[in-house]
Amino acid sequence: MKLSDVIMEVQEALECEKQSYKEIEACYGEVTKGWIEALEYTQGLLNRVTTTEVKTLPEPTYNGYTNKPTWSIMSWINNDQVIYKHFHNKLSGMIIDAPTGKLVIELSDYIKSWFSNFNDDTSGLLGEANPIADILGYVLDIINWEEIAEHLIDDVMDYNESEVK
Predict the structure, then answer these.
(1) How distant, in Å, are the alpha carbons of 6, 67, 91 from that of 106?
(2) Residue 137's CB: how many other CB atoms inside 10 A?
(3) What count of other Cβ atoms lies within 10 Å of the Cβ of residue 140?
(4) Under DSSP, is residue 141 helix (H, G, I), strand (E, B) or coil?
(5) CA distance 160 to 165
(6) CB 3.0-4.6 Å disulfide test: which of 47, 76, 149, 165 passes with 108?
(7) Same domain? 68 vs 122
(8) pLDDT tens per residue across all 165 residues of the chain
(9) Same domain, 98 and 130
């Protein structure tokens, strides 16, 4: 099944559920409303994926990660105490009310933004039009930020469980 087929199927299911909600709101409104919210969330995830990303992101190929840039970012996070503590603290605050799927997306967006702005104060390479900015932009785009977020969430959950014991 192609990604475009999945997107179309989710869109059709969403329209069907919205129609059902209008017709049976009095009896099953909350259940149907929940389905609509779930489908809208799924649709949002699918809209973030492009066919280019699907083709360029292979199975994990570098030390268990999608690619070397993803591994490198995760290595920096794991081996720099200040960076690790920063994301650990940020994540601890986010865990309180976010469902796991939404948490992965929110945390991955935050991590990408943080690393994308990391160099702004020193040389501004990412803010200027130049060959290095183009290359850095490409590398930032191929990093699997959600994979990094999932690893951090697992680390924090393991840490929290060990604190309880």
Answers:
(1) 23, 21, 10
(2) 12
(3) 15
(4) helix
(5) 9
(6) 149
(7) yes
(8) 566 666 677 777 767 766 766 666 555 556 666 666 776 777 676 666 655 555 554 566 888 898 999 999 999 999 999 999 999 888 888 876 566 667 888 899 999 989 887 655 445 555 667 787 778 888 888 999 999 999 998 888 777 666 655
(9) yes
Q: Name 47's Cβ contacts closer than 8 Å, sequence gap at least 6.
A: 7
- Token look-up 């680390």 returns 155
The CA distance from 120 to 125, in Å, is 7
Residue located via tokens 């087929």? 5
- Specify whether the CB–CB gap between 144 and 67 falls below 8 A: yes
CA–CA gap between residue 121 and residue 140 (Å, rounded): 18
Secondary structure of residue 98 in the 3-state scheme? coil
**83 and 137, same structural domain?**
yes
The boundaries of the domain holding residue 159 are 60-165
Same domain membership, residue 64 and residue 31: no
Structure tokens at 142: 């191929």
Residue holding tokens 């489908």?
39
Q: Number of structural domains, the chain?
A: 2
Query: C-alpha 128: how far from its chain's center?
Result: 26
- Is residue 65 exposed (0-12), middle (13-18) or buried (19+ Cβ within 10 Å)? buried
